[in-house]
Amino acid sequence: MAVFGITMRYAWFAVPLSGFMIGKFLDDQETLRMTNFRDKSSLYGRLVKEGDQPTWP
Predict the structure, then answer these.
(1) 38: which residues sit within 8 A by CB, 6+ positions away?
(2) CB-count exposure of residue 37 (10 Å: 0-12, 13-18, 19+)
(3) Which Pfam families does this entry report, sorted A to Z (predicted)?
């Protein structure tokens, strides 16, 4: 039985895919937030010269 054209076959595909996309979005936002602290830790930090790559992407 289809409600608004959505069948169970669609749900078996859409639910895991949407969960993956939400998880990827949250992970990307956390990575973006953590880049504010890049090379600023007193334990792992180092002096970065102009033009050098950061210690982690």
Answers:
(1) 54, 55, 56
(2) exposed
(3) NADH_oxidored
